[in-house]
UniProtKB/TrEMBL annotation:
The keyword NADP does not apply. The keyword DNA-binding does not apply. This is Cyclic-di-AMP receptor. SUPFAM superfamilies: GlnB-like.
Length: 111
């Protein structure tokens, strides 16, 4: 058995949690804070069988892994055109990224 401890962005947590719940995984969610940026993040704990580790890592990657996202820069005054409408510039930014720790678990007991 393994304990998966994963730290994800708060924004990524809701969809990741629903996917894990839908796939019938037991999850504990902790509200945590990154020690470097001092910003809130989410830590999830999952006790799972060894053979499920890759599947769970893949679900985490799909919902919290690094990915490209189009963002629009705030319009600069020079971008106001003759029709008085503003245009902002789309830029491709990298968002997300999860940290995963996989720990051995000797036994799970419910008493
Ligand atoms: P990430 O490496 O994506 O880490 C995101 C968050 O995951 C971290 O938040 C921390 O809460 C957790 N985390 C990552 N690796 C960990 C580990 N080995 N042990 C325990 N927790 C871990 P923050 O600490 O606020 O860090 C935010 C981002 O700042 C990090 O993104 C990384 O890009 C950078 N960073 C963190 N510590 C750094 C350091 N000592 N020097 C330079 N950059 C650092």
């Amino acid at each position: 058995m393994k304990m998966i401890l994963t730290i994800v962005r708060n924004e990524d947590a809701p969809l990741l949690l629903s996917e894990l719940n839908e796939k019938k995984y037991y999850v504990t969610k902790l509200a945590t804070t990154g020690g470097f940026l001092k910003k809130g993040n989410t830590t999830l704990l999952l006790g799972i069988e060894d053979e499920k580790v890759e599947e769970v890592c893949e679900i985490i990657r799909q919902h919290s892994g690094k990915r490209q996202q189009i963002m629009y820069t705030p319009p600069a005054p020079s971008n106001v055109n003759v029709y008085n409408s503003v245009s902002s510039v789309p830029i491709n930014v990298e968002v997300g990224g999860a940290t995963i720790f996989i720990l051995p678990v000797e036994e799970q007991r419910k008493v």
